[in-house]
Design goal:
The complex is a heterodimer of chains A (505) and B (510). Helices cover 72% and strands 1% of the residues of chain A. With 505 residues, chain A is mainly alpha-helical. In chain A, helix 11 runs antiparallel to helix 14. Chain A is globular and about 70 Å long. Chain B is globular. Chain B has a two-stranded antiparallel ribbon. In chain B, 62% of the residues are buried. By secondary structure, chain B is mainly α. In chain B, helix 3 packs antiparallel against helix 10 (250-260) and helix 5 packs antiparallel against helix 10 (250-260). Classes of the chains: A mainly alpha (505), B mainly alpha (510).
Chain lengths: 505, 510
């Protein structure tokens, strides 16, 4: 490659634009250094450093929410595209990461495991997700996605003494590799066909989303491009756990350490949706006739499968995993509706935010209650929770209520926004499926609340032994849980400035 | 009214909510109870104040109107509060029944009383909000706010089969709520090109100028009819109601059967009929037949009940049939009758549930065949119960009479056959009502009862039970003797904003 081309390319590098990601990467390295430098008795500081640095980055991002866009919107020679959506997602992933670190301190305290690497990996994955959400080029998309996935291979099997965790790690590895292969094959097909100069609008830089879009627009019925698009979508569907690529979810969610499950359930899923939205709305936009029906069928199947499969679960990690599958289905409705209704994108972000608050509230309670064996968390363990730990029970109820979409909680507003968008876009069959799904979901969410709240009669509580029910709740952990619950309530009836931002889309 | 320093409607919603939050934050029990009295009294007083100061000729406007932004203006959602002639009676009803239920709950000495009161207060706030909302979104929102505590109260403080009952109620009512939400969103989306809104006043204007197409109206009305219908226990979707009320703790049953259940009817009146008149006409026959299922089928089931609370549950389902029949008439007269009946039924059924619990505490059973002769031991209780039963049957002098009479007259214009069938229902309700009075209070006490009475001598109603009962009975009598106090504002609103309800033309068309 000629040197002047590289120079030209380097001119569009805006290192300032990716300061948050760079800082996260550096902090991740700093944590490893701190482990070497600090005496063993002070290692408790390391997660605190990780959390504080992330809070600082988040504050900086929030303050500069709009000012970053004074420059052209694509930087790094078209690799990255800066947008308000990207800014929102960066904050979203940071919030996830902070909460995962906090949950990690609770969960790792119950295990005899190396601690520091956990936070290191979480930070690296977060940085990669932030890049992923802003990718405008298949090269960056794939590299960022692989960074995320490889990080998760390790995190899922982090509790290496637990056979279930190792099994989950292996399953995730095999399935993840398969999905990466599909994705890569799709990318290669698209690259090849769009790089063909013989076809109209063929381009040398055919992995760039804008170029690809121009090519697809000029070649509306290209068979190879269609195959490539389907394969790419299949790869992404693995990440969000959409039917028929959801089969890994229950086992991996159960085996993974609870904070990692939370990370997978919220951040990884959101990253998948960020990619899906960009692909569907920008890169593959000319192939709407192919993408929209495929997504619609998958969304319907995902909602029904997730809810029906969750009905019979007794292990709460599997239950929330499968319920998360159904949430992916509702979110996919938003992606589909975004073709015709701009409100849908805002609705998607609102839904994800509500999902983050509610999920972490529930995962927080789960992490606290988990015993030495992290995979063994049954519904029966929640018996009498309301009597013994009313605070945790209240947080759990708010979280589950929000996930179920019960007003006045944030999850309800999220569903209403998605439904309104879908209605405006005219997706009536999908709405019918979604409503059915919501009604089914009430059964298991309410069953969980019932297990925690309703008196169990004379049956002795099996909870006491082997769970963390009796452990004291740390002050910061309590603050976080209160904030999550309060956020879920507040967003439900007074979305305020956030609501206005969402609706301004 | 905008010159008031304080928005009375917001006050009625916020006070119970604020008290609930204070209790949640760990107020000591003694203060919690004192504050709970305030939380229950303020909505009732605001309700009465609004009633007393209600403008005589309001027409299509709303009184005590105010509007607040919650950050969703872009979607056409604002917190708009106000009362029209249809909302006022319901608002007053919610205040009075809420007060009675609250006072009764405070004296009930339930386990974990603080949490129980907190949930009731949240429910009360939701109820005041439902009837004060002019915005369709918040109308639905407040309903759910009131509904959620019901599930918890049934599940935790309920009686026999509470787990099953709570689960069944939750699933049925969620299904109903989701259907109606879909219908409401449909109205919103179809409400004109650019400025879609959830604001009921603007919706009425927009849809009067540019109505939704007839075919679409039929679909949306179907969604709303069955969505709201499930919430009001329309036959054959009623089975959650007797089960739930049988298991619910008394105050929750009072509030739900008395007030919250009327949400569906209220929604049909305020939203579905004026916005979707063509849809309503199309569904009127179906609705009328289903309502007959409520009146006749459920009526006979009620006769067969042995459990007092189950019987009350079925009876309340049955009376909802009259209300649906009134809606099916599609006339100002019918709808006015429905509103009057909702108020009357709300007061009487709340009183009956209250008294049923008081009876249960004295006889230690709800089985009608195992009771008897309680009138000698508790004459005041007997008097109250007889009065409430008479009200429920629809005897003149009590509020229910006016509601039922109006509906029957309207029904006669709609179809004499339906009117005849509905009047037969009065006989049915007289049968089970009077039978229950006889079984509980008269005749010789059974052996089992005598044994119970030997260890726990049953006393008459205490003052703390009498106060809520008196409030409800006084309201029943007041409306019974002076129905104009409610029907005048009602008529003013209905004639102004329900012009599409043109009964004679419709009857001729049938």
């Amino acid at each position: 490659m000629p040197i002047d081309f590289l120079q030209q390319a380097a001119e569009s590098n805006e290192w300032l634009a990716i300061t948050p990601e760079l800082m996260l990467g550096l902090t991740a390295l700093l944590l490893l250094v701190l482990e070497l430098v600090l005496p063993k008795s002070r290692h408790g500081l390391i997660p605190a450093v990780a959390i504080v640095v992330q809070l600082v980055i988040a504050a900086g991002l929030a303050l500069n929410f709009n000012t970053a866009f004074l420059r052209p919107d694509t930087v790094f020679n078209g690799l990255l595209r800066l947008s308000t959506d990207g800014q929102f997602l960066r904050l979203f992933f940071l919030a996830c990461s902070i909460l995962v670190c906090l949950l990690g301190t609770v969960s790792l305290a119950k295990q005899r495991m190396p601690r520091v690497e956990f936070y290191h990996l979480v930070l690296v994955i977060t940085a990669a997700m932030m890049l992923l959400a802003q990718a405008n080029h298949f090269v960056l998309l794939f590299v960022a996605l692989e960074t995320v996935t490889v990080g998760f291979y390790i995190l899922v099997s982090y509790f290496r003494e637990s056979p279930l965790s190792l099994e989950a790690g292996l399953k995730y590895l095999v399935m993840g590799a398969l999905s990466s292969a599909l994705l890569l094959f799709g990318i290669v097909l698209l690259y090849g066909v769009a790089g063909n100069r013989a076809l109209p609008a063929g381009s040398a830089d055919s992995m760039n989303f804008d170029q690809l879009r121009a090519f697809l627009a000029a070649n509306p019925h290209n068979f190879l491009a269609s195959v490539g698009i389907v394969l790419v979508l299949a790869g992404v569907a693995f990440k969000i756990g959409a039917v028929p690529f959801q089969i890994w979810i229950p086992d991996v969610y159960q085996g993974a350490p609870t904070p990692v499950t939370a990370f997978l359930a919220v951040a990884s899923k959101a990253a998948g949706f960020a990619v899906l939205l960009v692909l569907a709305q920008r890169a593959f936009a000319p192939y709407q006739a192919l993408v929209a029906p495929a997504l619609a069928v998958m969304a319907g199947a995902t909602i029904l499968f997730g809810n029906l499969a969750a009905l019979t679960q007794h292990n709460v990690k599997r239950l929330i995993g499968l319920s998360g599958v159904s949430h992916a289905g509702y979110l996919m409705i938003g992606v589909i509706a975004a073709y015709r209704e701009p409100l849908a994108v805002g609705a998607l972000w609102f839904y994800l935010t509500a999902y983050l608050l509610a999920s972490f509230a529930v995962f927080g309670v789960m992490t606290h209650l988990a015993g030495r064996n992290d995979a063994d968390q049954e519904l029966d363990h929640y018996a009498n929770l309301a009597r013994e730990q009313p605070f945790l029970a209240a947080v759990l109820a708010i979280g589950l209520g929000s996930l179920a979409g019960i007003p006045p909680l944030a999850g309800f507003m999220g569903k209403v926004l998605i439904f309104v968008a879908a209605f405006k876009a005219g997706h009536y069959p999908l709405l019918a499926v979604a409503i059915t799904g919501v009604v089914i979901s009430i059964y298991y969410y309410f069953g969980w609340i019932k297990a925690a709240f309703f008196p169990v009669g004379s049956q002795p509580a099996p909870a006491a032994a082997g769970t963390g029910a009796a452990a004291p709740i740390g002050p910061w952990f309590r603050v976080a849980l209160v904030a999550l619950a309060a956020g879920s309530v507040l967003l439900g009836f007074y979305p305020g400035a956030f609501g206005q931002w969402v609706l301004a889309h | 009214m905008s010159t008031l320093p304080l928005d009375p409607l917001l006050l009625a919603i916020a006070t119970p909510l604020a008290v609930a939050v204070a209790i949640l934050l760990g107020l000591p029990k003694r203060h919690s109870i004192k504050l709970a009295y305030v939380g229950f009294a303020v909505p009732a007083l605001v309700g009465l104040w609004c009633w007393a100061n209600f403008p005589a000729d309001l027409g299509a406007k709303y009184a005590f109107f105010s509007r607040y932004s919650t950050g969703l203006d872009g979607l056409g959602i604002t917190l708009a509060l106000g009362l029209n002639g249809v909302a006022l009676p319901m608002f007053v009803l919610a205040g009075l029944v809420g007060f009675a239920a609250g006072v009764y709950a405070i004296q009930s000495n339930a386990e974990r009383l603080k949490i129980y009161l907190m949930l009731l207060l949240v429910m009360q706030a939701g109820l005041m909000g439902v009837f004060a909302s002019v915005d369709v979104f918040f109308f639905y929102f407040f309903h759910e706010l009131a509904l959620i505590p019901t599930f918890i109260m049934v599940g935790v403080w309920g009686g026999r089969d509470r787990g099953y009952a709570a689960m069944k109620m939750t699933i049925y009512l969620t299904a109903g709520a989701m259907l109606s939400l879909l219908g409401l969103i449909a109205i919103y989306v179809k409400s004109g090109g650019g400025g879609q809104t959830f604001d009921l006043i603007m919706l009425r204007e927009a849809l009067a100028a540019d109505p939704i197409g007839v075919a679409t109206q039929k679909h949306i009305f179907g969604l709303l009819l069955f969505g709201f219908g499930i919430l009001v226990s329309l036959w054959p979707f009623h089975t959650w109601a007797p089960l739930g009320y049988g298991a619910a703790p008394s105050s929750a049953a009072m509030l739900h059967a008395g007030v919250l259940k009327k949400f569906g009817l209220y929604g049909l009146i305020q939203i579905a009929l004026p916005l979707l008149p063509e849809g309503a006409k199309d569904w009127a026959r179906v609705l009328a037949w289903l309502s007959l299922g409520n009146v006749l089928v459920v009526g006979f089931i009620a006769i067969a009940q042995r459990d007092l609370k189950q019987m009350l549950g079925y009876s309340s389902v049955m009376h909802m049939g009259y209300a649906f029949l009134g809606l099916a008439c599609f006339s100002v007269l019918g709808v006015g009758g429905v509103v009057l009946l909702m108020v009357a039924h709300g007061l009487s059924v709340a009183l009956l549930f209250l008294l049923a619990t008081s009876i249960q505490q004295r006889t230690h059973t709800l089985d009608l065949t195992e009771m008897g002769g309680l009138a000698q031991k508790a004459p005041v209780l007997a008097a109250f119960f007889v009065a409430a039963t008479f009200a429920s049957i629809g005897l003149p002098g009590l509020a229910n009479f006016w509601g039922e009479l109006t509906i029957f007259v309207a029904l006669w214009h709609f179809s004499p056959g339906f009117a005849a069938a509905a009047v037969a229902g009065v006989v049915i309700s007289a049968v089970y009502g009077l039978r229950s009075v006889a079984a509980v209070f008269f005749g010789p006490p059974t052996e089992a009862l005598q044994k119970v009475a030997a260890t726990h001598p049953p006393g008459d109603l205490t003052w703390r039970e009498k106060i809520p009962a008196l409030v409800l009975l006084a309201a029943l009598l007041f409306v019974g003797f002076w129905p104009q106090s409610l029907s005048r504002p009602l008529q003013s609103t209905l004639t102004a904003s329900f012009r599409m309800l043109d009964a004679p033309r419709l009857a001729a068309g049938r």
